[in-house]
Amino acid sequence: HRLKNRGSRASEALRSLCAPHKLLLTGTPLQNHVGELWAMLNVLDPARFDDADRFLASYGDLQSAEQVRALTELLRPYLLRRTKRDVDLGLVPMEETLLHVEITAYQKTCYRAILEQNRSLLLRGADARTGPSFLNMHMQLRHVCNHPFLLRGVVQAEGLEAASDAEYAERLVLLDKLLPSLRAQGHRVLLFSQFRMLLDLLEDYVAHRGFSHERLDGGVTGERRQAAIDRFCAPGSNTFLFLLGTKAGGVGINLTAADTVILFDPDWNPQNDVQAQARCHRIGQTKPVRVYRLVTRDTYEDQLYRSANKKLGLEQAII
């Protein structure tokens, strides 16, 4: 992945090596823009791909079908690709449902306070030093969309320590309706988020609701990680829910015991969401897979999701 940045030290070091043959392995040859393709092609064939500006002038904007076809033909001799459908023709289908979620009045207040950098409104006049940082406003807006309790100082300022989590975030209200229905129908669920602090909140919620669950995030390693996977996948296991960090555990883990995926928040990198779905929609899956993607309507998160879709469309068109 570091090769995709042509200015990275890893990329420069590999370009200095003299080798008669080179092979690059990646599941995501294109993630953000066409320049990433040139960076890898330059490593593979520096004589032919020696000028990034000329390459980007020809293919960088991809405004026409002719450009897409020309780039695809240029890549063809260099690309060997296999998908799971090539291997298992009987792979069950996967259906994705986009659920646009509204925000509660309290979330709107917090969202406005973040945009206006108004700690007084956010914290009800409490000590501003206990509030969130506004240096990364996009991250704070994403926290509001997930659950306002993720904002530093909000719980204490509102005196909400003993309050019900669900009523302050519409996304959790939806989850509170969806999970009991899925359990009643006999489904088993993987719930993904890229935020560990959100998984902490969700773990409190599912424990309060009495849902049997496992958890895997960046802090769960080694034997504990494998033990959680084994318990969930064991024949006869009645564990209903698996909470996972979107990027935790590696892309190779097999959780085909589940048949439902909930993407609680979209990842910055859409490929991470694609790989998350593949934890259960993979060779060996015998049940149809349903994916529920939660996106907060008319917020920064909605814009992020649309941008991610454009990246996936770019890869679909070229690769």
From TrEMBL:
The lineage of its organism: Eukaryota, Haptista, Haptophyta, Prymnesiophyceae, Isochrysidales. It holds the Pfam family SNF2-rel_dom. GO terms for cellular component: chromatin; nucleus. It comes from Emiliania huxleyi (strain CCMP1516). It is found in: Nucleus. Keywords: Hydrolase, Nucleus. Residues 174-319 form the Helicase C-terminal domain. GO terms for molecular function: ATP binding; ATP hydrolysis activity; ATP-dependent chromatin remodeler activity; chromatin binding; DNA binding; histone binding. This is Helicase C-terminal domain-containing protein. Residues 1-47 form the Helicase ATP-binding domain.
